[in-house]
Amino acid sequence: MARISIRNASIGAALIALAAVTANAPALAQYPERNVTLIVPYGAGGGTDITARMLAKDLEAVLGKPVTVENRAGGGGWVGWGSLAKANPDGYTIGYLNVPSMYAGYLDRQYNRSETLDSFTPLMNHVLDYNVWAVKADSPFKSVKDVVEAAKKAPESISISAFGAGSDDHLAILSMQAENGIKLITVHHKSTADAKTGALGGHLQVLGANISEVAEEAKAGTIRILGVMSPERSPFLPNAPTFKEQGFNQVWSVSRGIAAPAGLPKDVQEKLTAALEKTLTSSEHQAKAKQLSLEPRVIKGDAYKTFLKDNEVSTKKLMGW
Asked: Is residue 11 classed exposed, middle or buried when 0-12, 13-18 and 19+ CB atoms within 10 A define those classes?
């Protein structure tokens, strides 16, 4: 009995000591405790920037801390993606992954980047923004077929915009060329704003872009949409036929999703994913997206990783990397 009493006394003393240590220890950090930075790998005013600023405002309300958008343009997006990959994986730096554009940085050997898809913790897809071909309102081209027929008659005579090798716009052009045996003059621009200026100024014959980037001009009548590369007609451009309606088997879009650096702690990842899902599925966010001609498409966790990997494989195949 004495030994049991001594043992009990020892346990009691240990518990008292542990309680004292616990009482004097700082409280466990609760994420988030400070501002979150959201990296946009492109300049202000483009589709990704518009998407990000819409998200940041609504995500702030869910996280309870400011979400600050930082535009880090250059290097085909890799100034921003490189910064994101090298950031501290603590949940306070997140950013947009734009695919397929991102893949060129490490699949194309001329760039020889060390970062890959594995350098990130994919969290959630935000929007799918389908591709369009558009022209100046007074262009003689009235349909996608008109462009294809003109290109067949005079190879390499029709200019069209894209935004870097392996971008969604570029892949769509390559696929159309392969399907129809044509050759277009692909003119790579730094921004959609530059491409639109070229098209409206008559220096570019066809504008390759995304729905959200041209919907307002289409509604205003300054440009004409020749076709949309979506499975069915877009609610934002209901009068514009799809490529499939016109006999061309083309469905292309850019995916804009959110990621953190690789190595993000599981608990922080879960909190961020939950916050993003709550934000993206809210009626307020959905209404704002609609006003900006954006289509939120939630793909999260392992499903998002699979989505990104499948896109990587198809891009590599089409580009021959």
From this structure: exposed
Structural domain range at position 101? 36-128+254-319
* pLDDT tens per residue across span 217-271: 999 999 999 999 999 999 999 999 999 999 999 999 999 999 999 999 999 999 9
Q: What is the pLDDT of residues 74-91, one digit of tens each?
A: 888 999 999 999 999 999
**Are residue 110 and residue 136 in the same domain, yes or no?**
no
Cis amide prior to 32 (ω within 30 degrees): yes
Instruction: Output the DSSP codes for 91-122.
Output: SSEEEEEEETGGGHHHHSTTT--S--GGGEEE
> How many other CB atoms are there within 10 angstroms of residue 22's CB atom?
8
Encoded tokens for 22: 């616990």
Domain count, the chain: 2
The SS3 assignment for 278 reads helix
Sign of CA dihedral 280, 282, 288, 293: positive
Does residue 279 share a domain with residue 236? Answer: no
The Cβ-side half-sphere exposure at 190, using a 13 Å CA radius, reads: 5
Backbone angles phi, psi at 292, to 5 degrees: -95, 10
Within a domain: 160: yes
**Residue 1: inside a domain:** no
Is the pTM higher than 0.85? The answer reads no
